[in-house]
């Protein structure tokens, strides 16, 4: 295993210290952060659902041509709000991403992947 305790196999990155499987799609998709720079002006606590919805919606088209399209269930703000209330890990990860302006890990979360996607387990 590499010195950073991570293993990369094609498009899937698994870290030794985490059970989360992160998918690393084409690098151009991560340029999407430039499209959502305006989010940094929003107060996170008051606008977390809007931030998540915007990140997901601006990513949907780019992910549509990958093996991991975004599940349309999560594209509305109400679903995003429900997920942030019910899953503190997602909320914490989104807050960290919001403070850095880099949402790659949020875009890659399994929560947003279409149910028609191949299983990663």
Describe this structure as you would to a colleague.
With 121 residues, this protein is mainly alpha-helical. It has one domain (26-111). The protein is 44% helix and 9% strand. The chain is built from 5 helices and 3 strands, in the order βββααααα. The chain has a 3-stranded antiparallel sheet, with no helix packed on it. Helix 2 (44-64) crosses helix 3 (77-86) and helix 3 (77-86) packs across helix 4 (88-100). It starts with 5 loop residues before the first strand and ends in a 13-residue tail after the last helix.
Helix and strand topology:
Blueprint: E1 6-9, E2 12-15, E3 21-23, H1 32-35, H2 44-64, H3 77-86, H4 88-100, H5 104-108
Antiparallel strand pairs: 1-2, 2-3
Helix pairs in contact: 2-3, 2-4, 3-4
């Amino acid at each position: 295993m590499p010195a950073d305790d991570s293993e990369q196999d094609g498009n899937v990155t698994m870290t030794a210290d985490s059970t989360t499987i992160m998918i690393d799609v084409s690098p151009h998709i991560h340029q999407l952060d430039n499209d959502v720079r305006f989010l940094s002006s929003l107060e996170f606590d008051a606008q977390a659902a809007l931030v998540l919805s915007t990140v997901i919606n601006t990513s949907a088209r780019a992910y549509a041509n990958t093996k991991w399209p975004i599940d349309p269930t999560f594209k509305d703000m109400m679903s995003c709000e429900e997920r942030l209330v019910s899953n503190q890990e997602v909320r914490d990860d989104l807050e960290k991403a919001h403070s850095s302006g880099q949402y790659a890990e949020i875009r890659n979360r399994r929560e947003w992947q279409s149910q028609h996607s191949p299983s990663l387990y």
